[in-house]
Design brief:
The structure is a homodimer of 209-residue chains.
Chain A (H helix, E strand, L loop, with lengths): L6 H9 L7 H21 L11 H36 L6 H42 L5 H26 L5 H32 L3
Chain lengths: 209, 209
């Protein structure tokens, strides 16, 4: 599993001449980092007298962000697994007509699978953003830069996942599937980017000096 | 060392109630991921007949991106180290007047150090972006989404590092140091974001369907 590798080995494997892990798994890792920072800000807020008023809210956010972190970490491996399935379908025999059509169907199926993993990641980023906003607004203000980095990681993860949905849609024949995924992708990206801009502007303003 | 931890442990440690590793180390990791993807696209381009014309240029980019990846990976640990130095300075004794002024000087010195690590990271992102543009334009177009994710990671890393420079500048008394770092930070961020927007627009356009 990719998450069992050291950070150093993960980087080396990403940089290697094998297409997986690639941008899809890297985007999932960025989302996991974003949710991890959200949890960190929660934990640096909980138990502090100054933030007594928001304890219950921040405790609830922590439960959510830890659950999203676990899902994002799982998507690091799922993305590479889905990509390898596409490669395996391309490697199927194509000598007879039957083999050709079975191979073609397997490629279509696997490619659809390879769009659904990054779509799940985009949904996860959209789910996580409201929690980042809560910790940026109400959490420990000594960690405001960390909340800001959480928003940046989730926004980059979401746009990266959108690239991965879209590069795969190009080879899918099912036009209804394609148009549904295109509009879902665009809506999710707009929502996540709007949160990210708001949070980022808040952080820059706080540090404007 | 943080880079010797598994990805899973790195995420758990980020999410913990200890402020380090935090947004600074996460930003350095994002930059390392961006340069790793740049190297991957180079390696998926080198040796391919279709890209014979750009072999020499892409080989030169690979050398640069691998060197930047190594530096970015080192900054993951350096950021946490610099942060811990600030914490250590705050923990110095403050009973006598001499102790108070020595502690105050140590805090100033350590906080300056804690701005210089993310500034280095921003410079690294600015150095890396022209190479990402080369691989997005001239590299293996099957990996265009990976080049796009590389740009997103470097841009998020650079803005995250800017947050970390700025949160520290707030507690530095040396006004010349502060104003120099503020203008360097703003210029680097503008440059990196302009590259990222250009590359991202290229990727979205290629997949517009």
């Amino acid at each position: 599993m990719l998450t069992s590798k050291t950070v150093s080995d993960f980087l080396t494997e990403t940089a290697s001449n094998s297409p997986a892990p690639g941008g899809g798994s890297v985007s999932a890792l960025a989302a996991a980092l974003g949710t991890a920072l959200t949890s960190m800000v929660c934990r640096l807020t909980i138990g502090k007298k100054k933030y007594a008023d928001v304890q219950t809210e921040i405790e609830a956010v922590l439960l959510k962000s830890e659950s999203l972190r676990e899902k994002a970490a799982a998507l690091i491996d799922e993305d590479t697994f889905a990509f390898n399935k596409v490669m395996a379908a391309f490697a199927l025999p194509k000598e007879t007509e039957d083999q050709k059509s079975a191979r073609s169907a397997a490629i279509q199926e696997a490619t659809k699978g390879a769009t659904l993993v990054p779509l799940q990641l985009m949904e996860l980023c959209a789910d996580a953003m409201p929690f980042v906003r809560v910790v940026a607004e109400k959490g420990n203000q000594n960690s405001l830069s960390d909340a800001g980095v959480a928003a940046l990681m989730l926004s980059a993860a979401c746009e990266g996942a959108a690239f991965n949905v879209k590069i795969n849609l190009g080879s899918i024949n099912d036009s209804e599937f394609v148009s549904t995924l295109r509009s879902k992708t665009d809506a999710l990206l707009r929502s996540v980017q709007s949160y990210a801009q708001e949070i980022s502007a808040r952080v820059h303003a706080a540090f404007a000096g």
